[in-house]
């Protein structure tokens, strides 16, 4: 119908154009007052021809896209229509609705349906290559509007040009925690501490914003959540990435360098609400959120490697008491020595070092270097940290340890061990805490073991881009009327973090306590964008110098999380 109208228009306009030219030739020798009108009509016809040509071009593009998303039967019918039209033959009425030009409602519904399925989007900005981005856009499908594409590659709302050269995406990582503590009565001489029976916290409220030009990506992610109490705002990342080399991402700026298996996972994919205490302490030596970083990661199907040179964390100099920033580095390598349909074996090694410590102003002048390490009982609903140690006169600090993981069908087992070493330097000014600034090396350690089983939904699988295990996938979004319930998993973990060192020597001893946590949890994913978590923790912390833990404390926590991820 479109082509027939176009042909009729062009034939008619050509005839009018010829008549006007003939009239103009016959009147050349005797100009009349109608010449101006004829010229005006000719100009108007030219404008109409150009406008109609543009409309036909747009309609042809929409016709091609409609044919791409139609069934093979409809595509064949569309081809038959074109052949019949070219030969001037009549078209059967049955072909009338084979292709609906200008109506993309079916494509839109398919797009939204696919956006519901899969694993949760990352809590970080985009870092994929231009080629991967275009492939993801085609896989997830998109709506084309006037040379622009609107879609959900990776489950994140994205606007891009047709070729994906320019793109912008905006995401969300929202974690709202609610819960409380039980059995936390202090012994005589101890303070009660912040262990409310019922409280809440906006644990994460990140809005990842990514800007792309080909293989160059800029990420800016503010965070309005908090690790212990909400009401503050900070920066999670602000960095520039180049992804033009094969399976390689080069990063500069405020970033979370990937070190340890748990830290390489997105927080939207954690088995439990929080990381094990030991991995949190290790990553904060010279990595953690919003750390000034320069480095790269490379991945393949069977191995993963990354290294970064790091500096100060964002905001560390805001108080004005740091006058010489920290310098450090991270390194992680991981691989899969055995892979099959039902089995994944993961082995890895992570190392991190702060070889130049940040110096702070001492109370009496001069400078001091100290390290304060502390952790909550693996639930961030309290400002009191029973596990705590402060070491003064620090020259450097490092940590290293192995990673192990194993997947068999729906079961995932994993664990890590880390040793932390702190060397004391020659600076003896400003003793801090109750720790002597005497020499000697301080040694801490910790480990964890975890088990996870997916009851229904797609089981956890190995993510080669993270060198870690991903969350379960949703095959069918929550729809009880049709028997679809999303995905459900259960998890358990045993975790130990030991901040005691050299207790046999009263001069150089550090007594920060040992924390043991038994955890169990259940996670439900109605679709890829939402998750509901419920965790129970039983924790035991040996005595140290913290006012709330002079005699040693133990207790329980029950906490839940509402998660939204885009």
From TrEMBL:
The keyword Signal applies. InterPro entries: Porin_dom_sf, Porin_O/P. Residues 1-27 form the signal peptide. Gene3D superfamilies: Porin. Pfam families: Porin_O_P. The keyword Cytoplasm does not apply. It comes from the Bacteria. Keywords: Signal. This is Porin. It comes from Komagataeibacter melaceti.
């Amino acid at each position: 119908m479109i082509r027939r109208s176009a042909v009729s228009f062009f034939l008619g306009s050509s005839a009018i154009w010829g008549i006007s030219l003939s009239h103009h030739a016959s009147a050349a020798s005797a100009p009349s007052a109608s010449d101006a009108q004829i010229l005006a009509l000719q100009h108007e016809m030219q404008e109409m021809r150009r406008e109609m040509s543009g409309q036909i071009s747009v309609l042809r593009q929409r016709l091609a896209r409609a044919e791409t998303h139609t069934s093979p039967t409809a595509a064949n019918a569309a081809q038959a229509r074109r052949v019949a039209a070219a030969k001037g033959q009549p078209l059967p009425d049955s072909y009338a609705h084979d292709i609906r030009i200008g109506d993309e409602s079916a494509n839109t519904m398919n797009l939204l349906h696919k956006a519901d399925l899969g694993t949760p989007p990352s809590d970080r900005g985009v870092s994929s290559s231009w080629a991967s981005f275009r492939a993801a856009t085609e896989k997830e499908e998109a709506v084309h509007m006037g040379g622009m594409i609107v879609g959900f590659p990776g489950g994140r709302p994205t606007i891009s040009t047709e070729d994906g050269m320019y793109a912008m995406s905006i995401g969300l990582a929202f974690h709202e925690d609610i819960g409380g503590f039980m059995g936390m009565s202090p012994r005589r001489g101890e303070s009660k501490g912040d262990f409310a029976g019922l409280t809440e916290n906006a644990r994460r409220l990140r809005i990842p914003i990514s800007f792309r030009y080909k293989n160059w990506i800029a990420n800016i992610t503010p965070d309005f959540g908090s690790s212990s109490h909400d009401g503050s705002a900070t920066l999670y990342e602000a960095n520039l990435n180049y992804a033009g080399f094969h399976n390689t991402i080069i990063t500069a700026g405020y970033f979370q360098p990937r070190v340890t298996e748990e830290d390489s996972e997105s927080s939207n994919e954690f088995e439990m609400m929080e990381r094990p205490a030991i991995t949190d302490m290790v990553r904060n030596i010279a990595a953690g959120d919003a750390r000034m970083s320069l480095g790269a990661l490379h991945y393949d199907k069977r191995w993963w490697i990354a290294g970064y040179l790091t500096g100060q964390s964002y905001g560390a100099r805001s108080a004005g008491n740091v006058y010489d920033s920290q310098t450090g580095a991270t390194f992680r390598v991981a691989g899969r020595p055995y892979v099959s349909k039902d089995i994944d074996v993961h082995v890895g090694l992570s190392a991190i070092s702060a070889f130049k410590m940040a110096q702070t102003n001492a109370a009496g002048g001069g400078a001091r270097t100290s390290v304060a390490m502390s952790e909550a009982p693996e639930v961030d609903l309290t400002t009191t940290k029973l596990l705590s140690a402060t070491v003064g006169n620090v020259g450097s600090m490092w940590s290293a340890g192995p990673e192990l993981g194993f997947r068999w069908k729906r079961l995932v087992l994993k664990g890590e061990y880390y040793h932390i070493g702190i060397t004391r330097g020659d600076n003896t000014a400003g003793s801090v805490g109750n720790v002597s600034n005497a020499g000697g090396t301080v040694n801490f350690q910790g480990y964890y073991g975890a088990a996870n089983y997916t009851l229904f939904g797609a089981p956890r699988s190995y993510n080669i881009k993270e060198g870690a295990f991903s969350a379960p996938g949703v095959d069918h979004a929550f729809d009880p009327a049709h028997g679809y319930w999303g995905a459900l998993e259960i998890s358990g973990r045993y975790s130990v973090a030991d901040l005691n060192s050299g207790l046999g020597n009263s001069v150089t001893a550090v007594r920060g306590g040992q924390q043991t946590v038994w955890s169990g949890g259940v996670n439900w994913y109605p679709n890829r964008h939402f998750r509901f978590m419920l965790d129970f923790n039983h924790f035991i912390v040996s005595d140290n110098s913290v006012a709330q833990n002079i005699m040693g404390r133990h207790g329980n926590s029950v906490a839940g999380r509402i998660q939204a991820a885009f």
